[in-house]
Design a protein that fits this description.
With 558 residues, the protein is an alpha/beta fold. The protein folds into 4 domains: 2-127, Rossmann fold (3-Layer(aba) Sandwich), CATH 3.40.50; 130-325, Reverse transcriptase/Diguanylate cyclase domain (Alpha-Beta Plaits, 2-Layer Sandwich); 335-433; 452-542, Orthogonal Bundle (Arc Repressor Mutant, subunit A), CATH 1.10.10.60. It is built from 22 helices and 10 strands. The longest helix is centred in the C-terminal third of the chain and has 40 residues, at 412-451. Residues 443-541 form the HTH araC/xylS-type domain. This is Two-component system response regulator YesN. It holds the Pfam family Response_reg.
Length: 558
């Protein structure tokens, strides 16, 4: 999904251009409007913008000043200037920059549409990172990258020293491009969907390619180090590159906004290049290095609390001071038990069952095993399940005294079959909760829309309200309700408009204002497009209806 921002101080031009672009068959194009350079700046500071279509001469912040801000906030954004003949000298210098083009206002809509389509094609081409894919397949991981992986795994385990002097020495020796005296922002990523039963090499190659893609985007505006953790998931540690403003004065809020927008581009690139969905969780508060191990555990847990299927989700979370008292749980020593715990937390049912099968293989295979070894295996798995239940409490009777009592089962094999059944029940409950959370979230969105019909209901604004990224919200709404978000908004506004038009006290332009249209002309055009008649024709017809004949717009079924 791409976001087009149209900027002009003449509302009729801005609105007209937005309507023209909305009628074009450009899949996933989200259109935003700004009636001044200041309003455009608000958009640029709050969400990712991919293409800007802007006038040059505007009061306050003009198009050329806006270009410098765009270059700083969203380096990959394409800019199209609409100019008059007398603006050419000013624009000539601007078009020497990469990604900037211009059109004369006299050239007409067709040229503008073609320019926007051309900019989107350039963005599409930039997502097809064939060069990075080939690089991931051909090059060996050099010793420095491997050393970074091992070093940060060591730190995340809580075994390393996290005090600044020691970190500074380690960073210098390992050539790590971060500053130990400066707080970091963590970004956790996991691959949601890939080929069925991929080999270890295929999984690692896909994850490594996602890391390389992420690095290439994130280094536009940050200092960062990416790594693959012991569960095969991704973690980036990020610091702003604001010149001369490290520490508490660094622009962490701006960096978080950059991450929220750029991670969507990384997701699109991974989907295009690898046919793989990637989900991200951003820690929005700058963290000290000492707090990194427990925050990493919290991010892992938060990442796997999904709404819907979680594919292509970007979630932003923060942790208060009370959260730092202690880690979520002690680490389990056995590699397979650690994997089992990670698979259960991540909702990876097939991988969990395969690992459980490997753990219980000595018993199911009929080999001679000492009772103490069986008890150790059983208790380790049971504690993984119990730990998960403690993190995700449920009123359902999924456990009983038999969970921690090997001697309650007739045979050892029956005991491990009981563990498998308990895990199956947990995975089923998880899927049910994910579906319920998605339905609840969409019910909240529908309620918000119906209560704010007079306000901005753009996808960006609704995404900010719901704390989802725009593309995920759009897809989740369609998945849960069976209709597009824009269709639901149009229906809600039409229904409210009909109710108000049926009441004589409201003038037509007042009705339009109450459903989000400040211009009576725009409201009339919208209403006729949806209903086939003008507001006045509807009002005249409504006078002949019985008083109880108005129909209400039913919310989508939940």
């Amino acid at each position: 999904m791409y976001r087009l921002l149209i900027v002009d101080d003449e509302a009729v031009i801005t609105d007209g251009m937005a309507e023209i672009m909305a009628r074009q068959d450009i899949p996933g194009l989200d259109i935003c409007k700004a009636y001044s350079g200041g309003e455009a700046l608000d958009w640029l500071n709050s969400t990712r913008i991919d293409v800007v279509l802007s006038d040059v001469r505007m009061p306050g912040i003009d198009g050329l000043e806006l270009m410098e801000i765009i270059r700083n906030n969203w380096p990959r954004c394409r800019i199209i200037f609409l100019t008059g003949y007398n603006d050419f000298d000013a624009v000539y210098q601007a078009i020497q920059n990469w990604g900037v083009r211009y059109l004369l206002k006299t050239e007409g809509y067709d040229k503008v549409i073609a320019a926007v389509r051309g900019a989107i094609r350039e963005l599409d081409d930039g997502l097809r990172t064939d060069r990075l894919l080939a690089q991931a397949k051909e090059q060996r991981i050099d010793m420095e990258t491997l050393a970074h992986f091992e070093y940060f795994r060591h730190l995340l385990s809580g075994a390393g020293t996290l005090h600044s002097p020691m970190l500074e020495e380690d960073f210098r020796k390992l050539n790590i491009p971060l500053r130990p005296a400066v707080p970091v922002l963590p970004v956790f990523g996991s691959l949601i969907r890939s080929a069925e039963n991929p080999s270890y090499a295929d999984r690692h190659e896909a994850t490594m390619t996602v890391k390389l893609i992420g690095d290439s985007f994130l280094r536009d505006k940050t200092r960062c180090v990416g790594m693959i953790d012991r569960f095969g998931d991704l973690l980036w540690l990020i610091q702003p590159t604001t010149e001369g403003k490290d520490g508490p004065d660094a622009d962490y809020a701006g960096t978080v906004r950059f991450l929220e927008g750029t991670l969507e581009l990384i997701q699109a690139s991974c989907c295009e290049t690898l046919s793989t969905d990637v989900s991200f969780t951003i820690g929005s508060v700058p963290l000290s290095w000492e707090s990194l191990p427990w925050v990493y555990d919290r991010l892992r847990q938060q990442q796997h609390v999904r709404v819907g299927d979680g594919a292509s989700m970007v979630m932003t979370v923060s942790f208060g001071q009370h959260d730092s008292a202690e880690p979520i749980r002690e680490r389990v020593r056995s590699d397979k038990i650690e994997l089992l715990s990670g698979h259960l937390e991540g909702g990876r049912r097939d991988a969990f069952m395969q690992t459980l099968k490997e753990i219980s293989e000595p018993i199911s295979g009929g080999r001679m095993v000492h009772f103490a070894q069986v008890m150790e295996m059983y208790d380790s798995v049971a504690l993984v399940i119990l730990s998960y239940l403690n993190q995700s409490p449920t009123d359902d009777p999924l456990t009983s005294a038999a969970l921690l009592r090997l001697d309650k089962h007739a045979t050892w094999l029956e005991a491990f079959e009981y563990l498998a059944r308990t895990a199956e029940a947990l995975f089923a409950l998880r899927r049910q909760r994910e579906k319920s959370r998605a339905a609840g979230a969409m019910e909240g969105i529908c309620s918000y829309i119906e209560q704010h019909l007079a306000e901005d209901l753009s996808l960006v604004r609704l995404a900010k309200h719901s704390h989802f990224n725009p593309s995920y919200l759009s897809r989740l709404f369609k998945q849960e309700t069976g209709q597009n978000l824009s269709e639901y908004i149009d229906k809600a506004r039409t229904k409210k408009a009909k109710e108000l038009l049926a009441e004589a006290e409201w003038k037509i332009h007042e009705v339009g204002s109450r459903v989000g249209y400040e211009s009576a002309h725009s409201f009339t055009r919208f209403f006729k497009k949806v209903t086939g008649i003008t507001p006045q024709e509807f009002r005249d017809a409504a006078k002949t209806w019985p008083s109880d004949s108005s129909k209400s717009l039913k919310p989508y079924p939940l």
